[in-house]
Specification:
single chain; alpha/beta; 2 domains; seven-stranded mixed β-sheet; two-stranded antiparallel ribbon; disordered N terminus
Length: 314
């Protein structure tokens, strides 16, 4: 189904792709999406299609859509942006502009669709320049991990890792990837059932697993959160407190080294319950487990036999 545009031309964007307003939210099936994407072969139609997806995603965020559906919606939008970028690469040539874009330059006679800034156009062209097999692999991994894919994430995924960066990442992973004491995993399972998000590599059967370095970590933290790998405690503790205060995080448990001299240790007074584990060391350093949010009394009861327990006053 098509509908009229304000300029008198017919829109190629069908009803299932339009913001549902007061109607039930309907996400296009993969088959519907492929048919409509195949018919959209000009920049203006693809830009309209992208805007419809942005509106759908905004509605979906308010409807608390299942993560798998939200991921599918984001994947479809990225495929639209990629095709739009491919068409722009053929129809918009680079040159000396009157205005410089931080992403790229365009000729003064370049024609872009309405409401498409030059910076955004440059990003879509970069997305289109990613090899198809690399782009598809990024989407498959995002779907398998139920992680919302982004244009920036796709570009980072496709970018080659420099040797010195790879070495630094390897060291950071080793530092953060220690094994969590089994008694701690038992406590987490007892007070969090089920675990919504696990930040780290602990095997706890969480609904979603991510890493502390994930670019969309802030958006992923919600519900009951278990942080098993925390290489940089200060920002993680502050982030969890902020998410707890705005109601996004119900409760959180974090495993940390017992570095009572570290500046971040003072942050634990901000409403954290703390258990200093007895006779437990991780990589030669003592271990603490901290909790914030709902079920604080349950955490203190569950850890009472594991070591000294105290709570902050935030």
């Amino acid at each position: 189904m098509t509908s009229g545009r304000g300029d008198g031309a017919e829109s190629t964007v069908p009803e299932p792709f339009r913001p549902p307003g007061q109607r039930d939210l309907v996400i296009p099936t993969t088959e519907q999406f492929k048919v409509v994407l195949g018919r959209a072969n000009d920049a203006t139609s693809l830009q309209e299609m992208r805007q419809a997806f942005v509106a759908l995603e905004a509605v979906a965020s308010r409807c608390k859509l299942a993560m798998s559906e939200a991921v599918r919606l984001a994947i479809q939008r990225l495929e639209v942006e990629r095709k739009l970028g491919a068409i722009l690469m053929q129809t918009v040539r680079r040159g000396r502009p009157r205005k410089m874009s931080p992403e790229a330059t365009f000729s003064t006679d370049a024609t872009l669709p309405p409401d498409l800034p030059r910076q955004e156009a440059a990003k879509y062209q970069k997305l289109a320049a990613i090899p198809a097999e690399v782009f598809d692999r990024y989407l498959r991994e995002s779907e398998a991990k139920e992680r919302l894919p982004t244009s920036a994430g796709a570009r980072r995924f496709a970018a080659p890792i420099k040797p010195e960066v790879a070495k630094a990442r390897s060291k950071k992973t080793r530092a953060a990837g220690y094994s969590v004491p089994p008694q701690v995993l038992d406590v987490v399972r007892r007070i969090m059932e089920p675990i919504d998000v696990c930040v780290g590599s602990a095997k706890v059967g969480a609904r979603r697993t991510t890493s502390s370095s994930a670019p969309d970590l802030v958006d992923q933290l919600a519900g009951d959160v278990f942080v098993s790998d925390c290489p940089d405690p200060a920002p993680m503790l502050k982030l969890l407190v902020r998410k707890r205060n705005n109601g996004k995080v119900e409760q959180a448990v974090v495993v940390l080294p017992a570095q009572v001299w570290a500046p971040w240790f003072a942050d634990l007074k901000e409403g954290w319950s703390v258990c200093l584990l007895r006779d437990v060391q991780v990589d030669g350093v003592g271990c603490i487990v901290v909790h914030t949010g709902a079920r604080a009394s349950a955490f203190r009861l569950a850890t009472n036999d594991l070591g000294a327990v105290f709570c902050g006053c935030g």
